[in-house]
Amino acid sequence: MIQLLRTFVWDMRDKYIRFNYLNTYFLMHLPGGLGFEIRRRIIPRYFASCGERVDISEGVRFRGISRLSVGDNVRIGVDNFIQASGGITLGNEVMLGPGVKIWSINHKYDDISKPIADQGYNCDPVVIGDGVWIGANVFILPGVNLPEGCVVSAGSVVHKKAYPPYSIIAGVPCRVIGNRLKRDGSSSKESSIET
Is 157 exposed, middle or buried (0-12, 13-18, 19+ CB in 10 A)? Predict the structure, then answer.
């Protein structure tokens, strides 16, 4: 029992571990408008940077929250899990559907003489551009760069690859299945985009 108490006291010395306790046992469980408002006032204080009017739904978990940068009018969906230890940037007007996971680190596994758990991590930042909508239960892997206006279909696994702006992306593994500019046909940006 004394060892547990010492561990807890040690944990409380680190502001980000204190945040994880606060979020896990309190913030992430608050429902309704009051929950949104309390999370909006407390959680962004721990981000690397944060814009205005950020909505954080119930059940959101963070790791490496100090490496997360968030723009204006961002909506973080129910039960999202954001592992930002390798760095994550969410642009303006980004929407994350329920169950989205974004990872910016991965286990090293090159040394076959060591267990994978003992080899450390590779960090690879994730950048999500302005106006991106990520559907429910999408998994975004380390190193992904989604440019402006992309839409990612529910259930997709997004890997590191070049995606044109305004792409419609779907699948496991994901691929570009369309482009929002071509569907619209009226956008002046279309002439500057190559697919």
Answer: middle
